[in-house]
Amino acid sequence: MDAPQYSYVKFEKRDNVGLITLNRPKALNALNSDLFHELNEVVENFDNDASVGAIVLTGDDRAFAAGADIKEMRDSNYIDNYKTNFLHHWTNITNTRKPIIAAVNGYALGGGCELAMMCDIIYAGTKAQFGQPEIKLGTIPGAGGTQRLVKAVGKSKAMEMVLTGTFNLSAEEAERAGLVSKVFPPEKVVDEAIKTASIIASRSQPSVQMAKEAINQSFEMSLGAGLLFERRLFHSTFGTHDQREGMSAFVEKRSPNFKHK
């Protein structure tokens, strides 16, 4: 993938996986608008790259992202935020068709926790910490912290985290609560995320993307509507090459050769 060099993110391809690294180490990867513009562009490029089947997003050993850049927000006012719809573009990655795995080491606080929750799977190093400390700054989460966190860990724990601003989940607590899928030693979390992303990327990409869409719609629909949506997507897979190949390979006891079409 040919693209300009960026100031706040780094990226590379590992075979069929796109790896993106947040790159503001001196600021503990604090999130600002420029970083998100770069991140959104790189994610979109990977989403449109047919050779990439899944994406891994990570930070560094100290922080996935320690929060939003308070210096950028400090002098904002209501009218400016309203007119510019501030933070709207922070959630663009949730529209990505391909699965994104967050590989979290160190702090994932405030906007960093929200960014991790925008991803489809979260893997964490043993020293990771997840929290929403915005209330200590006289404000509240603004990029999903009061919404996605409840769905991930339940109302009581989300209330405790958001209302106190001081209760952070360790990696193990986050795994028990359902926020994190797996916990690894810090030096292994990125490699393990890439390994899982490679498995996902080896599957039929139309089916992977339909499955991701169906799971995400489960948060937006009633059970009846969601079941119908799922069934219709299931029906549609029978119009693909990969469904015929996958089922034929199973019957013939061989590995499938998916064409992603």
From TrEMBL:
MF GO annotations: enoyl-CoA hydratase activity
Record PROSITE patterns: ENOYL_COA_HYDRATASE (PS00166)
Gene3D superfamilies per record: 2-enoyl-CoA Hydratase, Chain A, domain 1, Lyase 2-enoyl-coa Hydratase, Chain A, domain 2
EC number: 4.2.1.17
Pfam families: ECH_1
Family label: Belongs to the enoyl-CoA hydratase/isomerase family.
Protein name, as recorded: Probable enoyl-CoA hydratase, mitochondrial
